[in-house]
Amino acid sequence: MAQIEFDHVTKRYGDVVAVRDVTVTVEDNEFFCFFGPPSSGKSTLLRLLLGLEKPTEGEIRIDGRPVNGLAPAARNLAMVFQNLALFPHMSARDNLRFPLVERGVAADIIEKRLVAVADKLHIAHLLGKHPAHLSGGERQRVAIGRALMRDAAAYLMDDPISALDARLREEMRVELKRLQREIGHTFIYVTHDQEEAMSVADRMAILEHGMVRQVDEPDAIYDRPASRYVASLLGSPPMNFIAGEIAGATGEFHDERGKLKLSLGPFSGDPAKVAVELGFRPEDAELANEDGISGRVVSVEPLGPYTIVVVDGGSQMLKAMIKGQQAPAVGDNVSLRVSSSRIAIFRRDDGRRIDFGERHGERQRERTTEAL
Predict the structure, then answer these.
(1) How far apart are CA 95 and CA 72, in angstroms?
(2) 48: helix, coil or strand?
(3) What pairing do the DSSP bridges indicate for beta strands 186-191 and 31-35?
(4) Distance CA 86, CA 32 (A)
(5) 254: helix, coil or strand?
(6) Could you give the strand order of the β-sheet that contains 65-66, starting from the edge strand earlier in sequence?
(7) 304 exposed, middle or buried (CB, 10 Å; 0-12, 13-18, 19+)?
(8) Which of 26-40, 137-151, 235-249, 305-319 has the highest mean pLDDT?
(9) pTM assigned to the model
(10) What is the DSSP string of 216-236?
């Protein structure tokens, strides 16, 4: 169990900056996730924490103790790798025992720990098998079990279930969350899969080109993304964006075609017009006969519990997620209506979110979009 701190950590490889000025605190007993696309710095942060790389600048602390100069073995961290790295010539039992055998732990202690870990992961019946005779999910459990054999300060996982099929990934997400709650240790999880990140994490950090863009609970980030970049990463289908401009004095948004107007109220910004993008999530859009964002239906994707309707909004395609299977036909003219409270506005120059004052009240923020 440990609190882990990254304090203004930067890592350079020559002219390439892999991690830039990262300051994040992972609390004791927390399931924390670093999330971002490939090459965003996620795995580099794990390597720095493990001691496989040294920070160019900044400090890493485990329970308040600086560890920049400590060897990997002295940090007491356990790792589950993306490729699992099981020994093919060893049985599952021997793979599990290996970390403690190498440390000279007494045989009776190893056996006691083995029984406890196998029971938690439901793999006792697999201990006699070799990795080649295990399914993908079973190998994954053995790899996690090998890490859990050690009483580590924290358990690090680098995209450990990305190679599994969709059904197995769902099962493993549930298992990982259950396991973390049962053993009560710090888990640090790295992934580029938004569903994994949001389903397992207590908190998550969103990375872009080695920089942390937002740290919060998954639901808070999803509902109030700090930037267009963060908003575009989370959500399936992703958030819709409409380019336009907004007047700071009145908070009135106009799209580039001049067909959409939305009044959100003043914000603390430049009173002149600001180039922005209006964003809303597909599940927040409703089909309306009038008073909305008008367009022609170009695609209908029935997915059982909901249907995704793609509407040609003129300058961009917009998606709406409609409950059930009652949807318009391709070619129909429809309008999309979205509550103002579910709309986000982002500056086009730097992508930052524009927040409107709460003082204007719920009535102002609950207005719906109007087509001119």
Answers:
(1) 20
(2) helix
(3) parallel
(4) 25
(5) strand
(6) 16-26, 4-13, 57-62, 65-66
(7) exposed
(8) 26-40
(9) 0.86
(10) E-HHHHHHS-SBHHHHHHSSS
